[in-house]
Amino acid sequence: MASFLNNMKAMDANRYATKKTIAQGMLDIALLTANASQLKYILQVGEQHQFYKLMLILISLSIVLQVAAGILLIIQSLISMHNPKDRRVGFIINHFVDAFIFLSVFCDIMKMNFGLDPAIPHSTDDDVELIKP
């Protein structure tokens, strides 16, 4: 009976790690999808947006960093960590992935501080309606 409980604990840790990895992947996809949606919005609004160029750069940079981090993670998964030389390369790739993700989150924080919210309609001077008393 004790060995059955030990096996269950080992399986639970593995199951937790698997669920955590899947959840992180889903969050990464959600962030990439949100960035794509924001890119579409800023391109539709165009230069009427007060911070058009800044938003375009931040969104594009965030997408590029996310894709680069994803590619590096795929490369890292192919590296054998048993060989010390490969392990060193894996650690270096891991540092780059961390930096790319940090910079991507920084870009996302900056763009949210400049008021990019597709839920709030952007009005132009043509849309102004005069109300007579």
From TrEMBL:
GO terms for biological process: cell adhesion; tissue regeneration. Keywords: Cell adhesion, Membrane, Transmembrane, Transmembrane helix. Its main location: membrane. Pfam families: Ninjurin. It is a multi-pass membrane protein. The chain crosses the membrane at residues 52-75. GO terms for cellular component: membrane. Coiled coil: none annotated. It is found in: Membrane. The keyword Protein transport does not apply. InterPro entries: Ninjurin (IPR007007). Belongs to the ninjurin family. This is Ninjurin-A isoform X6. It comes from Drosophila kikkawai. The lineage of its organism: Eukaryota, Metazoa, Ecdysozoa, Arthropoda, Hexapoda.
